[in-house]
Design goal:
By secondary structure, the chain is an alpha+beta fold. It is built from six helices and nine strands. A hairpin with a 2-residue loop joins strand 1 and strand 2. The radius of gyration is 26 Å and the shape is extended.
C-alpha cells in the first residue's frame, strides 16, 4: 500500500508525523470504452485547442482565468498559499461524531505514524477512545482544502474526510410532503421497522454481488453461451391501501421467520 501524503497531525503544541493511505478501493469491474464498429479502444488525449496537437504531462501547467488573462500556478505556489495546511492536519476542536449529519461524510483514510510519532500517535488514539471524541481537523490534499474527523478504529487512527457546509446544496424546488401520518399507519410502520431491526449491525454480510453476476455474464458471453434473461421479481402488495401494504409486509416477514426456524 502506497502513501498518498505525508506530514503531521497538529495536536495542540504536539506534532505527530504521519503518512496518509487511501482506505477504500473500487469493487466494480474495470470496463473499457470501445468503438462500436471494430471494438478498438477509445483513448482520451490532452490536446492543444489551437494547434490540435497532443500535449505531454511535462508541458502541462495549471492556471486560473483572472479577468480574461491566465495566471499560471506552480507546485510551489500551492504550497506558498498556506504552507502549514499542506503539511499539517491541524485539529481545531474536538466533537462528538454523532452530532455531525451523515450527509457531510465523505472518503476515509488510514493514518500511519512515522517513527518519531509512534508514542504521540498512541496517546492521541487512546485519549480519543477514552473521551469518545473525534478531532475536527483541516488540511490540504491535492491543492484542495478539506475538513476531516480523526477518530480511533481498533488500534489505528482514521481520517474521515467530511464536506464543508457550503458544499451541501439547499433542497430548493423539491416537493416534500408536509402531511402528518395517521396514528394506526405510523404504529404499523414502527412495528415493521422493529421487525427488520438487527441487534448488532454487521456490514460484512452485505456484498457487491452485482459485479460478480456481471463477471459471470462476461465469461458466459466469451464462451458463446446463450444468456437467458432472468425474470425480475418485485414483491409488493396488490392493494393500493397503505395500511394493507404494511400488514402484508409484516405477514411476509413473519412467514419467512417461521420457514427459517
Amino acid at each position: 500500500m502506497r502513501s498518498i501524503w505525508s506530514g503531521a497531525i497538529g495536536f495542540g503544541l504536539v506534532n505527530i508525523p504521519v503518512k496518509l493511505f487511501s482506505a477504500v478501493q473500487q469493487s466494480d469491474l474495470d470496463l473499457d470504452m470501445l468503438d462500436k464498429k471494430d471494438h478498438s479502444n477509445i483513448r482520451f488525449k490532452r490536446v492543444n485547442e489551437k494547434t490540435g496537437k497532443e500535449v505531454t504531462w511535462d508541458n502541462i501547467v495549471r492556471g486560473y482565468n483572472l479577468d480574461g488573462q491566465y495566471v499560471i500556478l506552480s507546485d510551489e505556489d500551492f504550497k506558498k498559499a498556506s504552507p502549514e495546511k499542506t503539511k499539517i492536519i491541524e485539529i481545531a476542536e474536538f466533537v462528538n461524531e454523532d452530532k455531525i449529519d451523515s450527509i457531510y461524510f465523505e472518503t476515509p483514510y488510514y493514518l500511519e505514524p512515522q517513527k518519531a510519532g509512534v508514542k504521540a500517535y498512541g496517546l492521541l488514539r487512546d485519549a480519543l477512545r477514552k473521551t469518545g471524541k473525534t478531532g475536527l481537523a483541516s488540511f490540504v490534499l491535492r491543492t484542495k482544502e478539506s475538513l476531516g474527523l480523526i477518530k480511533p478504529v481498533d488500534d489505528m487512527l482514521i481520517l474521515q474526510k467530511i464536506r464543508f457546509e457550503q458544499e451541501i446544496r439547499k433542497p430548493e424546488g423539491l416537493e416534500i410532503p408536509d402531511s402528518e401520518s395517521k396514528p394506526a399507519e405510523l404504529k404499523m410502520a414502527i412495528a415493521l421497522i422493529e421487525q427488520l431491526s438487527s441487534t448488532k449491525f454487521d456490514i460484512s454480510k452485505y456484498k457487491d454481488t452485482y459485479s460478480d453476476e456481471l463477471m459471470k455474464l462476461i465469461e458466459a458471453k466469451a464462451k458463446g453461451k446463450k444468456i437467458p434473461v432472468p425474470t425480475m421479481r418485485v414483491v409488493h402488495s396488490k392493494s393500493k391501501d397503505l395500511m394493507e401494504q404494511l400488514k402484508a409486509s409484516l405477514e411476509t416477514k413473519e412467514t419467512k421467520k417461521r420457514k427459517a426456524s
